[in-house]
Write a structure and sequence with these properties.
The chain is α/β, with parallel strands linked by helices. It has 2 domains: 3-117 and 245-262, Rossmann fold; 121-242, Rossmann fold, CATH 3.40.50.1400. It has 11 helices and 8 strands. The longest helix has 16 residues, at 247-262. Pfam families: CbiK. Keywords: Cobalt, Metal-binding. One of its GO terms (molecular function) is sirohydrochlorin cobaltochelatase activity.
């Protein structure tokens, strides 16, 4: 095996048990990475142990944890690794991923990390451009509400910052909230209601349109975002399209790998 064949890119995702969204998000990202970097072997790892166990039990498909993927690459004779997360922010999942990967630092000549989706100011602008291009037909009289995950990690501040930046860039009818942190649903209900939109569109601000999108956003129960906005009298349309489906978002991850390679 020549040296170039010993280089690998490990693509790390949270994971999803929803096959339809996985195919057009995680799989699509990995496929584009493989096409863009043909000299690298491509490996997959997920950080959600719960989803990994569910897939194994339901589909009899084994998906590596980060540590298992690192062990497999070592066994395969990989010498240099680029690890590219598909995480949205530099939160808890990303910190743990780095910790697990770096426990193998002595097994490889080099381990380098690409950054999550929202890391730099340029990333923020690129993501805003991707969203506004995707929803370019949105009427100024309507509202687009993006559902992020949210975290107790300090990096959660990016969601409120991004909401502010959408408005600063001329999109007062685009809102960013989270399921598990701030801006929360109470905040969104108040802020969106102040604009009196004619129609509300809900879309996940997550790589996949998985459980949170299907249940917390578009679910039929009274606690879902759809139901809560409908309770205020607004017509609501849910768009189950994960960020991984946006071509421009996938290109940001490719750029982050390029940036990691440039640091060599």
């Amino acid at each position: 095996m020549n040296f170039i064949e010993k280089k690998a890119i490990l693509v790390v995702s949270f994971g999803t048990s929803h096959e339809n969204t996985r195919a057009v998000t995680i799989d699509a990202i990995e496929s584009e990475i493989a096409s863009a970097f043909p000299d690298f072997a491509i490996y997959r790892a997920w950080t959600s142990g719960m989803i990994i166990r569910k897939i194994l039990k339901r589909d009899h498909v084994k998906i590596f944890t980060v540590s298992e993927a690192m062990e497999q690459m070592r066994a395969d004779g990989i010498t240099d690794v680029i690890i590219q997360p598909t995480h949205v922010i530099n939160g808890i999942e990303n910190d743990l991923m780095k910790e697990h990967a770096l426990s193998f630092r002595d097994a490889f000549r080099s381990i380098r990390f690409g950054t999550p989706l929202l890391t730099s100011e340029a990333d923020n602008r690129a993501v805003i451009a991707a969203v506004t291009e995707t929803f370019s037909s949105l009427s100024p009289k309507d509202a687009l509400v993006l559902m992020g995950h949210g975290t107790t990690h300090y990096s959660n501040a990016i969601y409120a910052a991004l909401d502010y930046q959408f408005k600063e860039m001329g999109y007062p009818n685009i809102f960013v909230g989270t399921v598990e942190a701030y801006p929360d649903m109470d905040t969104l209900l108040r802020l969106v209601d102040q604009t009196h939109p004619e129609q509300i569109y809900l879309a996940p601000f997550m790589i996949v349109a998985g459980d949170h999108a299907v249940n917390d956003m578009a679910g039929e129960d009274e606690e879902s975002w759809q139901s809560q906005f409908q309770s205020l009298g607004y017509p609501v349309t849910c768009i189950l399209k994960g960020l991984g489906e946006y071509e421009a978002i996938r290109k940001i991850f490719l750029q982050h790998i390029e940036d990691a390679l440039a640091e060599a």
